[in-house]
């Protein structure tokens, strides 16, 4: 095996430099642990941007992938395959009544959702085509999704912008209502904003948005790419929100990515059947979407989360961490707020740390993330043990406390 400097040199030579990669080569993972090419061990509190919801190399997922790999890899969506159907049934056990479209990524599932919202808005000669999204949101990197994403930085240099996407302040209902017109087809929002800094809306906001969409015939899309699959202490984060009647605020379409594949490329658009039915043959598709190996793994993820009670586990560990971080003496004067739900947490630092913060975490043996300049983001596997979580938090606290 080549040594680390040689691998890094080859990486710089052969890989496009669109990622701000750290100078570390990860070679092995097990549960919440990672090892690099020099044998150093880390506690992974970011789980591959939330993708490895059950940690690295989970035995049940390896079994699901290898058993399916021996049966059928890919056949295309001109045929039915049971892994797709079984996985859709698993989603249906925990989500609102719906039907699934499968693709490979969060951006693609949001593309599908926005297309479907437009299709619905243009039924019977309708002229609805605009999609409203929220500032500080993130919906992906395709041309349409950088227009939906509520942060102009992602669009810089890629103009002209895809038209029809309007960004308004998140959590400010009056501004959202004012942006709606007769051409509005959809509203897309994350139940809790991830990339934007783990931002939580006022408690009544989602219900008001639902009501507005109902009144104006607008398709409501919840982007649960970050928040889905138990991460926030509910199967899907919108299940934290209730309306006046006490019932859950339900979207017309929900999109999933990241965790739903456990680290394999899976995206899902889950739509209410009366909306989904508009996507007739020829309207949309994805050659490798619903690939049997990915589907077998995705379905196993749901089975394991159910079997091991991991939604509750995420909630318990998250609550414990919020209480600990808010009380932690070493963080006094260093942080302004701890936000989030379950195991999707943001610690807002008083000052944006100088470059190299994540590396300083790595040196202490913890993988963490910094987003929105000054928010330390934690999103470990939701099956992380209580001990590993506490040890990881010790390292996070020491990393923050050491900043000037
Ligand atoms: N939606 C949200 C809320 C996300 O956080 C992301 C990625 O971070 C995406 C969509 C895009 O997902 P992908 O990178 O899989 O295209």
Characterize the structure shown.
The chain has 404 residues and is an alpha/beta fold. The chain has 2 domains: 22-51 and 333-401, Aspartate Aminotransferase, domain 1 (Alpha-Beta Complex); 60-307, 3-Layer(aba) Sandwich (Aspartate Aminotransferase, domain 2), CATH 3.40.640.10. It is 34% helix and 17% strand. The chain has 12 helices and 15 strands. The chain has helices at residues 4-14, 59-71, 82-94, 106-121, 143-148, 173-179, 205-216, 273-276, 292-307, 310-327, 357-363, 386-401; strands at residues 26-30, 33-36, 41-44, 99-103, 130-134, 165-168, 184-189, 219-223, 253-256, 267-271, 335-341, 344-349, 366-367, 369-371, 375-378. The longest helix is centred in the C-terminal third of the chain and has 18 residues, at 310-327. The structure holds pyridoxal-5'-phosphate. The site of pyridoxal-5'-phosphate (PLP) has 14 residues, from helix 4. The site of pyridoxal-5'-phosphate has 14 residues, from helix 4.
Topology:
Elements: H1 4-14, E1 26-30, E2 33-36, E3 41-44, H2 59-71, H3 82-94, E4 99-103, H4 106-121, E5 130-134, H5 143-148, E6 165-168, H6 173-179, E7 184-189, H7 205-216, E8 219-223, E9 253-256, E10 267-271, H8 273-276, H9 292-307, H10 310-327, E11 335-341, E12 344-349, H11 357-363, E13 366-367, E14 369-371, E15 375-378, H12 386-401
The protein binds pyridoxal-5'-phosphate.
């Amino acid at each position: 095996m080549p040594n680390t400097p040689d691998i890094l040199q080859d990486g710089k030579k052969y890989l496009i430099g669109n990622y701000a990669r750290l100078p570390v080569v990860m070679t092995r993972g097990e549960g919440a642990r990672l090892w690099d090419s020099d044998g150093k061990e880390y506690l992974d509190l970011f789980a591959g941007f939330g993708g490895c919801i059950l940690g690295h190399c989970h035995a049940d997922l390896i079994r699901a992938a290898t058993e399916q790999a021996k049966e059928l890899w890919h056949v295309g969506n001109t045929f039915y395959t049971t892994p797709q159907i079984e996985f859709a049934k698993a989603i249906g056990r925990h989500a609102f009544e719906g039907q699934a479209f499968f693709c490979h990524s969060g951006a693609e599932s949001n593309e599908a959702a926005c297309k479907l919202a437009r299709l619905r808005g243009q039924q019977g000669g309708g002229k609805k085509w605009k999609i409203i999204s929220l500032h500080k949101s993130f919906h992906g990197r395709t041309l349409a999704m950088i227009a939906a994403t509520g942060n102009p930085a992602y669009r810089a240099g890629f103009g002209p912008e895809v038209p029809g996407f309007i960004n308004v302040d998140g959590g400010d209902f009056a501004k959202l209502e004012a942006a709606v017109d007769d051409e509005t087809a959809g509203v897309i929002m994350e139940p809790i904003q991830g990339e934007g800094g783990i931002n939580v809306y006022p408690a009544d906001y989602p219900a008001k948005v639902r009501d507005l969409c109902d009144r104006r015939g607008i398709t409501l899309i919840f982007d649960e790419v970050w928040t889905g699959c138990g991460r926030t202490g509910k199967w899907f984060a919108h299940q934290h929100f209730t309306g006046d009647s006490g019932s859950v605020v339900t979207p017309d379409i929900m999109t999933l990515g990241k965790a739903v594949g456990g680290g394999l490329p899976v995206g899902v658009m889950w739509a209410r059947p009366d909306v989904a039915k508009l996507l007739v043959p020829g309207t949309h598709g994805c050659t490798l979407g619903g690939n049997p190996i990915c589907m077998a793994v995705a379905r196993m993820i749901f089975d394991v989360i159910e079997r091991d009670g991991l939604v509750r586990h995420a909630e318990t560990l998250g609550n414990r961490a919020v209480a600990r971080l808010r009380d932690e003496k070493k963080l006094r004067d260093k942080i302004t707020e701890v936000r989030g739900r379950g195991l999707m947490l943001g610690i807002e630092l008083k000052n944006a740390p100088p470059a190299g913060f994540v590396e300083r975490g790595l040196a202490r043996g913890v993988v963490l993330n910094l987003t929105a300049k000054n928010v330390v983001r934690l999103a470990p596997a939701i099956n992380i043990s209580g001990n590993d979580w506490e040890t990881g938090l010790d390292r996070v606290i020491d990393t923050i406390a050491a900043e000037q």
